[in-house]
Amino acid sequence: MTELWKLTLAEAAAALEAGRCSAHDLCASLLGRVRAADPQVQAFLTLDETAVLAAADASDARRRAGRSLSRFDGVPLAIKDNLSVAGQPCGCASKILNGYTAPYDATAMGRLREDGFIPFGRVNMDEFAMGSTTENSGIRPTLNPWDTSRVPGGSSGGSAAAVAAGMAPAALGSDTGGSIRQPAGFCGVVGLKPTYGLVSRYGLVAFASSLDQIGPLARTVEDAAILLDGMCGHDPMDSTSLPGRHGGYAAALAEADVRGLRIGLPKEYFEVAGLAPEVRQAVENMAAALEQRGARRVEVTLPRSKYAIATYYIIATAEASANLARFDGIRYGARAHDADDLLATYRQTRARGFGDEVKRRIILGTYVLSSGYYDAYYLRAQKARTLIRQDFEAAYRECDVILAPVAPTPAPRRGELSDPLQMYLADIYTISVNLAGICGISVPCAVTNTGLPVGLQLIGPALGETRLLQTARIVEQAAALGVRFPNL
Ligand code: GLN
Questions:
Q1: Is position 80 annotated as part of the catalytic site?
Q2: How many Å lie between the centroid of ligand 1 and the Cα of residue 191?
Q3: Torsion over CA of 113, 94, 315 and 201, rounded to 10 degrees?
Q4: pLDDT score recorded for residue 421
Q5: Is residue 215 in contact with ligand 1, taking CB distance under 6 Å?
Q6: For ligand 1, what atom is nearest to the CA of residue 208?
């Protein structure tokens, strides 16, 4: 039998069910892989080995007694550091949350725990999910497991790197403007941003509440579908959670078929200056491969996509400035105890606790919301957001699924995106999906001649996850990359 750490989530579940391994052995093998690989990748912020093995032993005992919580009882998942797991640190990779322990489970986490999934450590991210490289982590950067001179992407860089390196079969991340899909693309794993409201945000530390969604990162489309099945559905604790019954995504993969499917290629996406030839080629090749399998290719237009970056960086910073106001050292946050008065306490707490990018965004967000500028910036951005959403609605009258790059280039070198504006521009292909509230998935589709993964993005309409995942499954089959692990 192959080493247990190499198993996908579905394979691990099957091995557990057939009694080919125990949850203890599975977790012990992954802990061993973390010990070997993580010194080079630095994906994990904390990993409580004793707690993991105790949870695995409890799962094994349930299975022996015939009382497994689900087929997945005993499968571990790495958790991004902005998702609450009761009793574990939840620091958002920020110094300001040093010492904070989450008092409850995020709904998404709680639901997966009810199925027996085991939280497996806290993984790194850009501080408060603000960034695209994980270099903005307030703790330390994470490195790309395929080439440690490069970034893993962000902000869920720890989640993507951990899964790509074989340190966890799958992980949870959050996506406000691309933070699941882009690191998945740079690390060669699958990353899904669900439709806004499909997965409860309760227990996710808010960055920009109207854009944030929790989603899975995994090595296969099937694993991502399994996790979405486990997490999705209405939650009274989140007022933006969608009503109705959802799920059945993994089961629907058996009917994956692209015959007759209309694949839309947005004209504007291929006019972006800075789109790397190998990324363009990978998308082209996949469009051709899907056509060969019976899909029809159509050109669509998203004329307002040129406003997406400006719109996003106004709305996201505005919401962030409101959401982060609670970290003042009084309500939340590691207090500066040596200040003389209340104002100085606020000032010093924030000056020491927040990194530069977080401060930049709070300042920008406060500015665009201030009276006199509100109409000129925030209100106009909201109007532009509506137009961007309408572009997608019009496009989905012509096509069923949109095919696009995830990012203009494969993973950049460390430091290459250190200029904030350069970094913001690299979000061009992902942020419109959050602004429109629709769903998107990043699927590995090629490898460059220097061995870097290239991801491809599929974008679906609101609640179009079934077809999105089915198409992603065909892309995965057509790419035929097989299972690969970096040498670490
Ligand atoms: N890179 C984007 C940003 O910096 C997206 C981040 C995210 O999705 N959390 O805001």
A1: yes
A2: 14
A3: 10
A4: 87
A5: no
A6: 9
Which H or E element spans position 44? Answer: strand 44-46
- The ligand 1 atom at the shortest distance from the C-alpha of residue 176 is 8
The two tokens of residue 407 are 């990012």
Q: Which of 83, 159, 179 to mutate to test the pocket of ligand 1 (most atoms within 8 A of CB)?
A: 179
* Any domain includes 70: yes
Which atom of ligand 1 lies nearest, measured to the CA of 207?
A: 9
Question: What's the sign of the alpha-carbon dihedral 194, 198, 204, 208?
Answer: positive
Regarding beta strands 170-175 and 213-218, do their DSSP bridges make them parallel or antiparallel, or are they unpaired?
A: antiparallel
Instruction: Please indicate, yes or no, if residue 142 is contained in any of the structural domains.
Output: yes
Inter-residue contact 113 to 31 (CB < 8 Å): no
Number of domains in the chain: 1
CATH of the domain at 160: 3.90.1300.10
Q: Is the CB of 357 under 6 A from ligand 1?
A: no
My answer on whether omega of the bond before 155 falls inside 30° of 0, hence cis, is yes
Q: What is the structure's pLDDT at 32? A: 98
> Considering the domain boundaries, does residue 27 fall inside one?
yes
Alpha-carbon gap, residue 359 to 355, rounded angstroms = 6
Burial class for 448, CB neighbours closer than 10 Å (0-12, 13-18, 19+): middle
CA 194 to CA 120: how far, in whole Å?
A: 22
Q: Is residue 195 part of a domain?
A: yes
3-state secondary structure at position 24 = helix
Structural domain span for residue 30: 7-261
Protein residue with its CA nearest to atom 5 in ligand 1:
177
pLDDT, residue 422, reads 87
Are the beta carbons of 482 and 208 closer than 8 angstroms?
no
The CA distances from residue 166 to 18, 41, 191, 335, in Å, are 22, 11, 15, 38
pLDDT at 1: 55
pTM value is 0.98
Q: Where would I find the H helices in 22-141?
A: 23-41, 49-64, 107-114
Rounded to 5°, the CA angle 450-455-456 comes to 140
6 in active site:
no
**Res 362: pLDDT:** 98
Task: Give the pLDDT confidence score for residue 482 in this predicted structure.
Answer: 86
The residues, any chain, with a CB within 8 Å of residue 305's CB and separated by 6 or more, are 266, 268, 269, 388, 391, 428, 432
pLDDT, averaged in runs of 10, over the chain (488 residues): 91 98 98 98 98 98 98 98 98 97 98 98 98 98 98 98 98 98 98 98 98 98 98 98 96 98 97 94 98 98 97 98 96 92 96 97 97 95 98 98 97 94 92 98 97 97 98 98 91
Q: Pick from 301, 230, 260: which is nearest to 467 by CA? A: 260
Start-to-end CA distance of the chain, whole Å, equals: 21
Rounded distance between C-alpha atoms, residue 298 and residue 461, angstroms: 16
